[in-house]
Every structure is written in structure tokens, then in C-alpha cells.
Amino acid sequence: MERKKIAIVGVGLIGGSLALQLNEKGMAAGIIGVEKSSEHATRAVELGLVDEVLPLEEAIERSEVVILAVPVDQMVALLPKVLDLVTNQIVFDAGSTKEQMINAVSGHPKRGRYVATHPMWGTEYSGPQAAVKNAFENKAVVLCNTAESDADAVEWTRFAYKKIGMHLLEMNAVAHDLHAAYVSHISHITSFALANTVLEKEREDQAIFELASGGFESTVRLAKSNPAMWVPIFMQNRDNVLDVLNEHISQLRKFKSCLEKENYDYLQELIENANRIRRILG
Amino acid sequence: MERKKIAIVGVGLIGGSLALQLNEKGMAAGIIGVEKSSEHATRAVELGLVDEVLPLEEAIERSEVVILAVPVDQMVALLPKVLDLVTNQIVFDAGSTKEQMINAVSGHPKRGRYVATHPMWGTEYSGPQAAVKNAFENKAVVLCNTAESDADAVEWTRFAYKKIGMHLLEMNAVAHDLHAAYVSHISHITSFALANTVLEKEREDQAIFELASGGFESTVRLAKSNPAMWVPIFMQNRDNVLDVLNEHISQLRKFKSCLEKENYDYLQELIENANRIRRILG
Prior knowledge:
The structure is a homodimer of 282-residue chains.
Chain A: E1 4-9, H1 13-24, E2 28-34, H2 38-46, E3 52-53, H3 56-61, E4 65-68, H4 72-85, E5 90-93, H5 99-104, E6 114-119, E7 140-144, H6 151-163, E8 167-171, H7 173-201, H8 205-211, H9 214-220, H10 227-236, H11 238-261, H12 264-275, H13 277-281
Parallel strand pairs in A: 1-2, 1-4, 2-3, 4-5, 5-6, 7-8
Antiparallel strand pairs in A: 6-7
Helix pairs in contact in A: 7-11, 11-12
């Protein structure tokens, strides 16, 4: 399938890493960045993530594919404007929520040009300097409500994600947002709360620094994540996140109750049940 | 400092990895294993972790250093018996709790031969097949209440841990157990509870398997850990773990309250506060 001229709106961790990987895999006939922050724009060009940075309208006009990789609150506002500007370009987004995105352009005359996607990869860092090579490989990308998109747009989007090494899944946006709350969003909440717990209890930074083991680092790593990205995700997926957060608090209360009552047989059972995650994650 | 004949009691993840690393760094003039499980004993010899497996008494008699690496409930019972058997051997343990261990041998005529240590490294796997090379490197080891131990025992123990690449910290057992609850034990509780949450909510194993991102895997990884090791740790460090678990539940409730009340400014603040962990972990 032919390589295309690509515009990437938001050249941060996700947009920048997509740029690197699309170039690497020969999918891009040039990449134009669109970037609000002039500092990020300069860095993105310096780092070779994009060939140049242009205003949104000009970038869309000169491209065949437009990829949106901004925080999901901005994305909901941006997506209809982008569709207003496209003629025949393919548009897809990389946002972590899908229902509000799809609702925002429901009935738009250019709805067909848009493919709702969520490539499930990220790190706790942000900005163009956080972009890394070989990102996305062997990770899942979810495509939502593809029946509402034009066949050629879906086809190229699928092809591009396959080329960069992702395995494709399709589901409707409602199901996506539910599953994303379970396997991604709740992990971030627990990690943020764990960091706050330790920062509250352990007043000796030096002790954390010196004693922190690999286990602590892995559970608290996500707590470094950018609020500008995560607050809008939690807003847009509020009901699902609240539901799973309530369940999580009640699971933690079971551990608390075991300890309070010194019911160590039940504690053993709770841990054995948790071990079942091995069956799934290997 | 001279290499010594070493007995390792419990040749699993920790004991086995210590055996590999002590051999690698030239600290061992032979390693004898002591292992209740005949299956693990056979594996430990097959894997070359130990030269042979012998009964406890014989192993101690033929060694200059005895390292205890069994679950902490067994350790508390075992330690006084080991001290009953030693003449001039150095004894140290690798347990994740220290106060009960030290109390168990307070006033023992051979108390001086024992050095209470906690090398802060581990993985979520267990058994001799889980032993890995180069474990412990660049991690912290805590030595507790060293004033109660003989100088020569502390000296060799310190030297051995330095040789295998660990940085040494000293603190009293009460402080150790408190800090360990903050930077290690709570991470395991949150991870077990997160696994149970997702297994409870997400009835589609396939969805977890396919969608699980790096973030999910890193927060839930510890949930694979062995209950035989962790239940006794939580028992022995119950008060500290309960204290930090209560704080953690109250931190999670703040996230819940933000979402319920749609107070996204406060949510932003909570996440910014969690980001302070960057300052400590880099």
C-alpha cells in the first residue's frame, strides 16, 4: 500500500513515537507536525520527528492522512474542526477514550473519513523528547465502530498499524471504554494513590530513594504520568473508572479486614485468587 | 577476605540467587543446600545452585557461614534452633521482616553469631528454577541491630553483600519494618488487590490478555507473588502494613470523591502531588 503524506497533530510522547515508527516502517511520504507549544515544535523538528511544523489548516491541506495525538479533552473539540477542514484525507486519533470522540462527530458530513483508534502503548513520560523508537510493537490497537468509517480509510489505518507491529482488535466504543478502565485507567489511579500514600507516610525521601525495590518502582512508575493527559481521560471515562475504583477499594478492604481480624486463611485465599492473573499474563 | 564454606537453608528464589551470586563473586568455598522439598533439592543440585543438599545439622557442622532464606514464619522458628547448633559459624537471614526475627533470639547465648539482614531484591517467581544470575546488584541491603552481633560476623556479612554489588544501610529492626511496609509490602497488597479487582470486573480473560498494556502489567506483576512467602510477611508486619493500607484506602477515596463530585481541579492536584515521586525515583 502506498506511503502517504502525514500530518501529526500533537507531537508529544504518542505523536512523536508514531512519527518515528511510521517513518521507520516506510509508511510516510513526509510528516508535518502541528504543535501548539513553540518549544515542543522546535524540539520535534530538532529531534527529526517531523520535517516541519505548520498551522493546522495548512498541514491538513498538504496531507493525505491526519493523526490526532493530543489530550482527549482537546481531541473532542478538535476532531469536528478537523473534519470540517478535510476533503478526502484519512483522519484517525490515538486517544485513550473513544465514546466521546465518536459522539463528537456523529452525523458530521465527513464522519466517514474518521477512524477511531487507540494504540495501547505509552510510558510515564511526555513531550517530544519522550518519543522512542520501536514503540507500539507487539502491542494492541483497538479500532472502534469501523462500520461508520469509509472502507478506504479503515483499510489504510489497519495497514499502517500492522506495519508498525501492532495487533488489531475491533470493538464498539462503549466496550472499549469499559475494558480500558479495567486494564489501563485503574492502574494509573492505583499508582497515583500509592505514590501519594508513600509520600504522605514516608517523610524521609532518602529512605524511599535508598530502599525502593524493583517491586515498588514497578507499581509506582505510572504515578509519574502527566496530569494534562490523565485528568481528561478520567473525566471522559468517569462512570467506568468510578465503577472499577469502587470495586478496587472494596478489594483492598478485604485485605484490611483479614489483617484486622488476623484471618490469615482468607488472606491466603485472596492472594491465591490474585495469582490467577498468571494464567492470563503468563 | 577469605572465601568460606556456606550453607544455604531454603534454596528458592532468594537462596538460589544468593548461591549463584556468591559463587560468581568468589565468596564461596563450596555451597551446601538445606531444603525441605525433595523436588526443590533435586532441582537445586541439577541447576548447579548448590554442590549438595544435606540435613540441617550436618550442613551447619560442615559450614562456616549459614544463610537462612525460608519464609519468615519458618525463619522465626528456625533461627533459635540454628543458633543452638552453631559453634562459631556466622549466621544471617534474608527475611523481609526483622523485628520478630531479632526478638526470637534475644538473649540466646549465640546471639552474637547472628546478623539480621534484608537484601531488598526479589521477583514475583519462586523456587530454585526462579533463581537468576546477577541478582541483588545495585540494590539495597539493610543490616539491623548490628551492635548485638559479633564484630567478625558483621564484618564478613558486610563484605559479602558489598561483593555481590549491594549498597549497605544500617537501621534498627523497628525502623526497618516500618520502611519496608512503605516501600515494599504495600506495593504487594495493592497489586494483589488490583489483580482481584480486574479478575472480578473483567470476566473476559481474553480481553485482559489482548489489551493489557505495559502499564497494567507493571502494576499487576507483583500479584503473581507466592502466598507462602507473603502471608507470613503481612502477619509479622501487621501493624505497619495496616497503618499504610488505611492511608492508601483514604488516598484512593480522594480520587473517588473527585470523580463523584466532578472536582477535576482537585484531581489535577492529586496527580501533581503523585508526580513528586519523580523527584525521588528519577
